[in-house]
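Q: Convert this sequence to structure tokens.
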Amino acid sequence: MIYIMAQGIMHEPMIDFRDYKIGTDIKGEKEKINKNPSEYKTFYSLKNQKTGEVIKVNQDEYIKETKYWAEGSPWKIEDGKNESVLVKEGYKSEIVKFKIEDPTGMELTDEIIKAPKAILVFSYHPKEVSSDLLQKVEAKVNAQKGALIYGVSTDQKTFKTIKNAMMDGTAIKTIARSNPFVLVLQNGKIIDKQPAKDYIK
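A:
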């Protein structure tokens, strides 16, 4: 019995638990994040100039209590000692890091996740990719008619025939299992993902 179960497990397909598995609705996840964001409050460190006493006061309390900021108040904010504190945990998702910009810093994320079809070629170490492989990948994605196409990397000059876009290298590594990597979206949902060397076969 145990042997049969082991056999069954060996033949089971690999289940992808990663945040960017096929079927993940990036657009839907972004909407959930926007509807239920985490909330932070700034806490000021105030020092009483007469007594030397130091207290922590949150931003709302500080504004409400005139004794902290009125003219002649002994309380002064201590430079460099303010801190941002999480007061409400929002919807948690790795997709919060899915932020793509053009080389000038303009965000492209919405355009990408709202496109009927988008093909993204990711590279987290662009200098380590052979120019021959990049050329072949770009030629294949350029042949896909009607798709929104971007090459996403940490260097704005990585791609030669498709539009370059920028993303944090750590965030790219979360998405891409190889360098480079191709991700295909349909209305913001992941429908295909594979290493570039497999994509061009």
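The mean pLDDT is 90.
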